[in-house]
Amino acid sequence: MRHKIGAALVALGVAGVSLVATGSASSHGYTDSPISRQKLCANGTVSNCGNIQWEPQSVEGPKGFPAGGPADGRICSGGNGQFAQLDDPRGGSWPATRVTGGQSFTFRWQFTARHRTTDFKYYITKNGWNQSAPLTRAALDPQPFLTVPYNAQPPSTLSHQGTIPSGKTGKHLILAVWTVADTTNAFYACSDVQF
């Protein structure tokens, strides 16, 4: 009888640890407007994405971008090796959202864990950036084109109204950074756009 009780307690302990582990892995957020690379993988529009297809909300890395954060070439994956497919430019074949410089645009985040937030920042690549290489800080305009301070816990969906930068042509990449206040991390989302 003791052996059965002991085995049952061990099984419950393993199940509890598994539940905690999967609960934290399925948390956080991503952008779906403009549609991010991780969302394109999750909804099946893009294939051969690896683990990100099941965890579009998990592109989490160190905060402090651009002074800190993920290393150059690993920005779209948040520096997370299991999501390295997001850093691959795929020869420019990522589907792109059509935008026009100067247009008003609604940027939208979806959250599966609603962390207390410091801010949201949106960066865009410079004209002439190297589209065939993974994203680097040097490829981005040095200042975000939109910063949204947000000293609160967001709802499950949050939209920001902003203006798409003028003077851009061709294909670009928008990097959205959600800086979390209650952890040492931020969440990263790369969205391909076409002017």
From TrEMBL:
Signal among keywords: yes
Location of this chain's protein in the cell: Secreted
Pfam families found in the cross-reference section: LPMO_10 (PF03067)
Coiled coil: none
Domain Chitin-binding type-4: 28-193
Keywords: Secreted, Signal
Main location: secreted
Top-level taxon: Bacteria
Extent of the signal sequence: 1-29
Any one GO cellular component localisation term in the record: extracellular region
InterPro entries: Cellulose/chitin-bd_N (IPR004302), GlcNAc_Chitin_IntDeg (IPR051024), Ig_E-set (IPR014756)
Name of the featured protein: Chitin-binding protein
Organism: Streptomyces lavendofoliae
